[in-house]
């Protein structure tokens, strides 16, 4: 009887270990870029250029410390979603949202921006690199609704011509709108 109890406990412990292991988050790859904070003047300019309004859902892909989605919520009344592959940046973003009093309006997700679900966005902000913008462009076109505004600091999208290009505090900021898809049903 005692051997049976020990065997049962061993099986239970093994099952518990497997269950706990299944709940571990998937390890993400290293970041593609280093974190460089966007100056507040540029944050405000990007959100104004995108004409962010109450009711918008602003996604910042590679959100860093969360300053863009925090400003979108605090200063423009929008909801915000920040996505970053670096868990340290996500922790910093959550702390910044708490300090700004906007935790109910923003969410931060530790994900790979190339795999993240972004279809809810009405505005997407970027501060990546030209090669990453180009790699991201097909995802933006296929997953976002036509008319979704995309704003990038410093880097363009190759042959996708911006609707507007402005200088803010010595930084170039680009605005595009996602085009209608040729395969979209009318």
Task: Give the secondary structure arrangement, pairings included.
Blueprint: H1 2-22, H2 40-49, E1 57-61, H3 67-76, E2 79-84, H4 87-100, E3 106-110, E4 123-126, H5 130-143, E5 149-153, E6 164-168, E7 171-177
Parallel strand pairs: 1-2, 1-4, 2-3, 4-5
Antiparallel strand pairs: 5-7, 6-7
N-to-C CA distance: 71 Å
CATH topology: Rossmann fold
Major pleated sheet: 7 strands, mixed
Shape: globular
Summed up, the domain count is 1
Count of runs of 4 or more consecutive helical residues: 5
State Rg.
Answer: 21 Å
CATH architecture: 3-Layer(aba) Sandwich
Strand order of the largest sheet: 3-2-1-4-5-7-6
Helix share, percent? 25-40%
- Estimate the mean pLDDT confidence: 86
pLDDT < 50 runs, ≥5 residues: 2-24
* Fraction of residues in β-strands: 15-25%
Secondary-structure element order, N to C: HHEHEHEEHEEE
Alpha-beta content class: alpha/beta
Total strands: 7
Give structural attributes.
186 residues, alpha/beta, Rossmann fold, 7-stranded mixed beta sheet
Brief digest:
The chain has about 190 residues and is α/β, with parallel strands linked by helices. It is built from five helices and seven strands. It has one domain: Rossmann fold, CATH 3.40.50.
